[in-house]
Inverse folding.
């Protein structure tokens, strides 16, 4: 079957079923700035690369096998001058392999090194539980693979299509270059980055090692704010076990429900919260999070975003970003201040 080339979709499809609005994709280009990741065509921004790859498309249409036309090009810093073209026609640059190995620690910010090691460990240790059925067309979860499941004999057997070539490391974006922490090769364009062949071989990871057969589900959410708190409601019924971990600038939510269903979410927050004064309440039809703000700053959104079209104010008739203010103000570490940093 042909495979859709639209960013955010990239699914195999049947020509007779290729109708309007069956494809959900991103019409823009990827945007990476100050640790935030997203698409130029929509406002959502995340910090984790896996969350970025899972951002649902904001445009609907029919599947296509043509090279996608990018509406906007992601802003990037100028690339280093030294470059060369390989025999495959891919432009690469940087020092030879031996030298890159010596400089590899510099490519990964020290603050994220622990996270990179954790990601590598999970990728290398997790394997498919072959007792769990795989839907036809399911894409391998390993980074850099992109192979779709066909059948147990083909995709889980001993043939060449059962071999998974993937990247066990984390993505690294630095000074316009794009690559993986597990191998030295770097490219300039995002499309070429997605095509970088994996540096490790193993078995495909279509469903993981979830022996309980849990189904991850998405729940409807709603939020509002007061001058001192942010209130988040997650609408989930039949809850069996609920765990919420408040962090300074994020929250981890894990809700187990009946029928082996589970809602699991890591949510990066627009601004920091007071962990000790934040709490959650489990109700019959929903879960309520009451998060205490660290200051009187109004949040323009629940999650970090580079696209702010409105601003909530408290106690004033004019525009303002803080309680009682008449002009928009925000702290230096606010996500809105990222675009002003040089």
């Amino acid at each position: 079957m042909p495979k859709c080339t639209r960013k955010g979709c990239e699914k195999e499809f049947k020509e007779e079923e290729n109708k309007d609005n069956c494809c959900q994709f991103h019409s823009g280009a990827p945007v990476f700035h100050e640790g935030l990741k997203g698409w130029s065509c929509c406002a959502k921004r995340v910090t984790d690369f896996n969350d970025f790859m899972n951002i649902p498309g904001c445009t609907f249409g029919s599947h296509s096998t043509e090279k996608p036309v990018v509406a906007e090009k992601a802003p990037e810093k100028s690339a280093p001058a030294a470059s060369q073209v390989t025999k495959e026609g891919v432009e690469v640059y940087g020092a030879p392999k031996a030298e890159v190995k010596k400089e590899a620690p510099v490519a990964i910010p020290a603050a994220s090194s622990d996270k990179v090691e954790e990601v590598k460990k999970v990728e290398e240790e997790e394997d498919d539980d072959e007792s769990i059925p795989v839907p036809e067309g399911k894409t391998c979860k390993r980074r850099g693979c992109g192979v779709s499941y066909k059948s147990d004999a083909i995709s889980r057997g001993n043939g060449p299509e059962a071999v998974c070539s993937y990247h066990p490391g984390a993505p690294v974006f630095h000074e316009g270059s794009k690559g993986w922490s597990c191998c030295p090769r770097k490219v300039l364009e995002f499309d070429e980055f997605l095509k970088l062949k994996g540096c490790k071989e193993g078995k495909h990871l279509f469903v993981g090692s979830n022996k309980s057969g849990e189904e991850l589900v998405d729940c409807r959410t709603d939020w509002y704010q007061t001058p001192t708190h942010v209130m988040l409601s997650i609408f989930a019924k039949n809850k069996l076990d609920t765990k919420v971990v408040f962090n300074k600038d994020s929250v981890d939510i894990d809700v187990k429900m009946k029928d082996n269903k589970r809602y699991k979410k890591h949510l990066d927050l627009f601004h920091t919260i007071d962990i000790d004064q934040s709490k959650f309440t489990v109700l019959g039809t929903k879960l309520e999070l009451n998060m205490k703000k660290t200051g009187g700053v109004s949040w323009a959104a629940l999650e970090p975003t580079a696209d702010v079209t409105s601003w909530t104010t408290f106690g004033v008739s004019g525009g303002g970003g803080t309680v009682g203010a008449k002009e928009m103000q925000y702290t230096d570490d606010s996500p809105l201040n990222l675009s002003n940093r040089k």
